[in-house]
Design a protein that fits this description.
The chain is mainly beta and 440 residues long. Helices cover 4% and strands 52% of the residues. It is globular.
Length: 440
């Protein structure tokens, strides 16, 4: 660890004892899937209803076509909102084994289940597949997800609580507490101050670990953010962040957010610009979208299966990065997220993410998610999909009464070898379905 890093780390350790004396804030950003429009199944808060969709069609996984049948249940009750779904596939070679080959497949029926807390209680509790999860600015955990290898996906959990002086959040990638877990605490020690913007100053500390026995990964980060000024409902908030992986490297990041909540009573947005300075053996957002198939133990193979692609922390030579992130939300039926980190070094360590969701009443539901590591460009959504890419494309369309058409395509990964540790290859899926949607 560099000398400036050791100094910065020592300061944060001391300040952490002071911040712990305060017990909850400025309006923090939603954590995980807290504000995810894809999981808002109620047209109004008093609308409690259950919906069942039965579907049938074809399933193409790799080069093999199969017949498929599935069901989806969406429940909205006073205590919880949830979506359960499952598919069974049968082909000329028999049943597709990964559908029901282990007890954990029962957990995989849960897309999500979240507690319906009152608006006056700023608490978020959710169980389900994780997608696009960030801790802070994403210095260590950035767009983390648990379904990039679809047949091996895990059901995780997340929670957060906000009050005037303290915000806490935590997550695990597996409810059985294996794999990745982490937490974050933010203190606002000057929340009672009335002068200027000092009451918005937030000091945060994050911790992340991978419990997989073969993977030795523990990381910390500490950051500070202050709302410098506000005009017309738009806030300008600079930040600075320091992070380190135990036994590897460390990095410094700084930048600013331009953000608004319910701007003009209609739109929420965030524009974030940041710069990263990385020592050797440090990669920003290493616990990310493809972490399940690309980490210190599990690795991704090239399409030919002849060599490993991607870099581990120990192979990184450092250098600097420039990050641009943009989020836009127009409730109840439109959201978009864009993230691009350009690496200015000799290694292929750039990162790109894109999410788009559109819903039009009960007629159309459309979503797309793209994740790319390595050589992706500023407009990475138009680049070729290579060995370090993932894609989810889904659409439901009501064409007549209760009759729906559904299409799902995935550029995912499958496990192919356990000899020297898990090895993953790109797996392409395409599933066109037709079904009936019934409201109970």
């Amino acid at each position: 660890m560099s000398s400036w890093g050791k100094c910065f780390r020592g300061i944060w350790k001391c300040s952490g004892l002071f911040l712990a004396a305060f017990s909850a804030a400025a309006q923090p950003a939603p954590f995980g899937s807290e504000g995810d429009l894809r999981e808002q199944l109620q047209a109004a808060r008093w609308d409690y209803s259950n919906v069942v969709m039965a579907m049938g069609g074809l399933s193409l996984i790799g080069a093999q076509w199969r017949a498929a049948a599935g069901a989806r249940l969406e429940m909205v009750t006073r205590p919880v909102t949830m979506r359960l779904s499952g598919v069974l596939r049968v082909g000329p070679l028999g049943q597709y084994a990964p559908d029901i080959d282990e007890p954990y497949d029962l957990l995989r029926l849960v897309d999500f289940a979240r507690v319906n807390t009152p608006r006056t209680r700023p608490m978020h509790v959710r169980v389900g597949l994780l997608d696009g999860l960030q801790l802070g600015i994403g210095h260590v955990v950035n767009y983390y997800g648990t379904s990039v290898a679809w047949d091996d996906r895990t059901v995780g959990a997340e929670f957060s609580y906000h009050s005037r002086a303290l915000s806490v959040a935590g997550f695990t990638g597996n409810v059985l507490l294996g794999g990745v877990s982490g937490g974050r605490i933010t203190a606002y020690p000057l929340f009672l101050a009335r002068a200027g913007m000092t009451h918005t100053a937030g000091f945060s500390f994050s911790y992340v670990t991978d419990r997989t026995p073969e993977t030795d990964l523990t990381a910390y980060s500490a950051d500070m953010q202050l709302e410098l000024f506000t005009t017309g409902g738009v806030h300008f908030s600079p930040f600075v962040s320091y992070a380190w992986y135990v036994g590897y490297g460390d990095g410094l990041a700084f930048g600013a957010d331009l953000h608004a909540t319910t701007f003009l009573d209609l739109v929420s947005f965030l524009l974030r610009i940041g710069a990263f300075y990385n020592s050797p053996h440090f990669i920003p957002g290493y616990v990310g979208a493809l972490y399940a198939v690309h980490n210190q133990h599990a690795r991704t193979l090239s399409a030919s299966g002849s060599n490993i692609v991607g870099l581990t922390l120990g192979e990184s030579r450092g250098a600097s990065d420039l990050m641009t992130e943009f989020k836009l939300e127009v409730p109840p039926g439109f959201s978009m997220r864009y993230y691009y980190r350009r690496h200015f070094g000799s290694q292929a360590l750039s990162e790109f993410h894109f999410r788009l969701f559109v819903r039009s009443a009960q007629r159309l539901r459309f979503e797309v998610g793209v994740d790319k590591l390595g050589t992706a460009g500023f407009l990475g959504i138009f680049d070729d999909f290579d060995d370090q890419s993932a894609l989810v494309f889904g659409a439901d369309y009501r064409f007549l009464g209760m009759l729906y058409l559904s299409v799902l395509a995935r550029y995912s990964f499958e496990q192919v070898d356990d000899g020297d540790g898990p090895r993953y290859l790109v797996q392409r899926r395409f599933e066109p379905f037709a079904g009936v949607r019934v409201q109970l």
